[in-house]
Task: inverse folding
């Protein structure tokens, strides 16, 4: 089967170290929590 | 994803949404959200954390763009939060949906509909929570959740309808976004 016809990606994730991933998720969760607090209490 | 290109497209989209707002508005209060369409397009192709960061940015921009109308002595004010949180939750929903819908124009348009539904619900819920007796009890003057839900339902349909040409146009720029998951033989849409 021709490779170019297969449109299913092998992985959604780019190659990135575990620490970078944890930091990115942690920051996102912190910002999300901050926004939640801000939109209710501001 | 190439962030510089994403920021340029975001700036252009924001300019179009802001500049053409008087042309795009229907019945004085139904407006489409081009930024949401851009966010959904990114969330269909980009990795998880990239999607959430992009949605966060687009949500904050939407919050800054539409001040909440005050009533009485309260003037219009900007509240950063409802749309930002809504966009992030919508982005999460889009990440779940991309395993279900195909990467085709109808698939992405269906995702826009679902994500828009999440965003509008979160915004209305956030505004309504402020009026509850706990924890803050600071209701917005003139706020009616039912009226907003009806208005935002039409906004949702309008955004979905407008997403058909916008997604088609964005599809032409897909290579320039340089999504990490793009493969050599994969460009444009799968129209099956």
Result:
């Amino acid at each position: 089967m021709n490779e170019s016809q297969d449109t299913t990606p092998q992985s959604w994730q780019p190659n990135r170290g575990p620490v970078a991933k944890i930091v990115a998720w942690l920051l996102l969760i912190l910002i999300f929590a901050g926004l939640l607090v801000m939109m209710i209490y501001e | 994803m190439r962030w510089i290109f994403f920021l340029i497209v975001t700036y252009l989209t924001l300019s179009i949404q802001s500049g053409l707002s008087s042309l795009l508005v229907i019945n004085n209060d139904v407006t489409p959200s081009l930024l949401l369409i851009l966010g959904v397009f990114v969330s269909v192709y980009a990795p998880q954390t990239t999607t959430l960061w992009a949605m966060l940015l687009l949500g904050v921009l939407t919050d800054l763009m539409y001040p909440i109308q005050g009533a009485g002595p309260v003037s219009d004010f900007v509240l950063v939060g409802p749309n930002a949180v809504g966009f992030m939750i919508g982005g999460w929903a889009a990440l779940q949906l991309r395993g279900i819908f195909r990467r085709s124009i109808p698939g992405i348009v269906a995702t826009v509909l679902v994500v828009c539904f999440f965003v509008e619900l979160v915004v209305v819920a956030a505004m309504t929570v402020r009026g509850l007796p706990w924890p803050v009890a600071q209701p917005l003057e003139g706020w009616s959740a039912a009226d907003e839900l009806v208005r935002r339902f039409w906004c949702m349909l309008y955004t979905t309808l407008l997403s058909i040409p916008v997604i088609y146009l964005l599809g032409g720029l897909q290579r320039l976004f340089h999504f990490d998951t793009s493969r050599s033989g994969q460009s444009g849409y799968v129209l099956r």
About this structure: The longest helix of chain B spans residues 145-172. The helical segments of chain B are 3-19, 21-24, 34-45, 48-65, 82-97, 105-131, 145-172, 174-177. Residues 182-188 of chain B have pLDDT under 50 and may be disordered.
